[in-house]
């Protein structure tokens, strides 16, 4: 639902005796682009405002649509439930994973432990050592970045488990609202809930939220994103706790947000890591055929931990459906290939693979310089020849067509 409050100029001429009530619109179809809806609302608000200013009617409700018209009802003013959008409720949960379950490079594990230490030493550093005098609201904001399925969500739960705290998870879609101005309020409510329950705040799929703000927003959606990013900056400055963002795509982060983040990079597992992941995802209770080799399974590269987990689940389901005795090597490899085929390519890998090496760049530059020099010499020779000789080709008559 959209609302419109009359501004001071609209109320001024008759404010002593009558003032225009707020206008509202609701029931817009979800499949119409937001840009078109914005233009429609602006025009309709203008027309409604002119009618109300001229005739000053009692409160009324108009109905419009493409289906059969509803039964005629007695006009009534909008209820408070229609006027006020509801604020989403956020709840915390116990962490689902521990550090022992993480299969990550030692460098990444060390970086995660650093994040834990930053929170654990807060009472000593900011309390006993009085660094709170220069930073009244100490908070830690971390960004997990890397391809999908590389363990970012597991790592967030493991950190919460290590800190003996609950975790509050959400996505950007949980914060967005069709009501203008409600997104920043939802974001503020999210941080307030995490503070009240002393929980680790985990924001997944945060690419859009962390990206650079629009200098000149052209659409209502762009203005809404700008407002949420501004609210995020204020929330990070006043929140005392740990905030973890997770992003899959490389983005140009907003400079103000970038300066507040600690980055932890997640990568696809190597052969040794893939072997450990296969081992942990094949429980002792799962009937596995004797032809299954962990080394052979780990030889399949460019797969994530999530790909391996889904391959085990699909292979086990297929085995159970066919009432077979055990999960075979062929079924596991086939399920893994199907999972790889359904996974979109990593944009980071695509970006880096198209970059030229320094030697290749020098080679391309030399070729361009050589072509420019050859073209320059050709033009100089052409300008030195007599006009009749130089233009002999251009003045040759075109051959006649043979019919």
From TrEMBL:
SUPFAM superfamilies given in the database record: P-loop containing nucleoside triphosphate hydrolases (SSF52540)
Keywords per UniProt: ATP-binding, Nucleotide-binding
GO molecular function, one term: ATP binding
Taxonomic superkingdom: Bacteria
Residue ranges constituting the AAA+ ATPase domain according to the UniProt record: 138-268
Region (Disordered): 1-27, 63-91, 338-403
Signal peptide: none
Family of this protein: Belongs to the AAA ATPase family.
Protein name: AAA+ ATPase domain-containing protein
């Amino acid at each position: 639902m959209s609302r419109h409050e009359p501004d001071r100029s609209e109320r001024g001429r008759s404010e002593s005796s009558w003032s225009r009530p707020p206008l509202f619109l609701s029931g817009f179809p979800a499949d119409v682009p937001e840009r078109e809806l914005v233009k429609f609302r602006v025009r309709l608000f203008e027309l409604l405002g002119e009618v109300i200013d001229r005739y000053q009617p009692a409160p009324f409700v108009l109905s419009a649509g493409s289906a059969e018209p509803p039964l005629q009802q007695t006009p009534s003013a909008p209820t408070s439930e229609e006027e006020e959008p509801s604020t989403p409720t956020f709840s915390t949960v116990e962490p689902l994973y521990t550090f022992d379950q993480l299969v990550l490079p030692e460098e990444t594990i060390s970086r995660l432990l650093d994040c834990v230490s930053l929170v654990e030493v807060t009472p000593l550093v900011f309390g006993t050592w009085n660094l709170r005098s220069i930073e009244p609201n100490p908070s830690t904001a971390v960004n997990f970045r890397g391809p999908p399925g590389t363990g970012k969500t597991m790592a967030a739960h493991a950190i919460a488990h290590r800190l003996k705290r609950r975790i509050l998870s959400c996505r950007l879609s949980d914060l967005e609202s069709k009501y203008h101005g409600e997104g920043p309020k939802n974001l503020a409510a999210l941080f307030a809930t995490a503070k009240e329950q002393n929980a680790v705040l985990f924001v997944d799929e945060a690419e859009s939220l962390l990206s650079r703000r629009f200098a000149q927003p052209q659409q209502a959606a762009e203005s809404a994103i700008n407002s949420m990013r501004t609210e995020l900056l204020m929330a990070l400055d006043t929140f005392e706790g740990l905030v973890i963002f997770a992003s899959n795509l490389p983005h140009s982060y907003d400079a103000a947000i970038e300066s507040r983040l600690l980055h932890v990079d997640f990568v696809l597992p190597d052969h040794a890591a893939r072997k450990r992941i296969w081992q942990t995802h094949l429980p002792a209770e799962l009937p596995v055929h004797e032809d299954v080799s962990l080394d052979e399974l780990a030889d399949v590269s460019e797969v994530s931990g999530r790909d391996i987990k889904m391959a085990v689940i699909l292979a086990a389901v297929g085995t159970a459906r066919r009432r077979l005795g055990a999960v075979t090597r062929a079924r596991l490899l086939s399920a893994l290939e199907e999972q790889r085929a359904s996974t979109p390519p990593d944009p980071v890998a695509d970006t880096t693979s198209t970059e030229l090496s320094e030697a290749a760049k020098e080679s391309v530059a030399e070729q361009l310089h050589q072509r420019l020099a050859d073209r320059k010499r050709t033009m100089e020779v052409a300008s030195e020849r007599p006009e009749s000789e130089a233009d002999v080709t251009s003045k040759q008559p075109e051959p006649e067509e043979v019919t």
